[in-house]
Amino acid sequence: MSNTNFFAEFFQAQDIQLSYCCAGCWSFLNIYHADEHGYRVTCDRCGDDRGFVRKTWAEHRLSDNAGEAIEVRALLRKLKVLPESNRTADEVFKELGF
Ligand SMILES: [Zn+2]
User: How far is the CA of 9 from the centre of ligand 1 (A)?
Assistant: First the structure.
């Protein structure tokens, strides 16, 4: 079968599930039994056509993105695009109803 989502053996599908995540949303992959083709590995959110990326790559990207978000928020506050937040953590929790 040319579709890379299908694997003849369960252990092959499980190897992909353990090492890879969805290329579209970087979420967990699921394994389904496919009667004619063995096992299908897919993302329930994005479907079969998005492909996979290594989990280690996605984890590095998430870490990089978190760092970039901190820098961008600071820049936007400096440029007065975002308001300065002088609230304490307790005040924020109180606003959120905790
Ligand atoms: Zn996905």
Answer: 23
Domain boundaries, position 73: 56-95
- Is 64 in the same domain as 85? yes
Residues 66 and 32 in one domain: no
Domain count, the chain: 2
Ligand 1 centroid to 91 CA: how many Å?
36
Q: What gap in Å lies between CA 21 and CA 82, rounded to an integer?
A: 34
Indicate the pTM of the whole model: 0.68
Q: Determine the pLDDT at residue 2.
A: 38
CA of 66 to the centre of ligand 1 (A): 20
In angstroms, rounded to a whole number, what is the distance separating the alpha carbons of residues 54 and 4?
15
The predicted pLDDT at position 43 comes to 95
Separation of CA 64 and ligand 1 centre (Å):
20
Angstrom distance (rounded) from CA 9 to CA 2 = 15
pLDDT at 1: 35
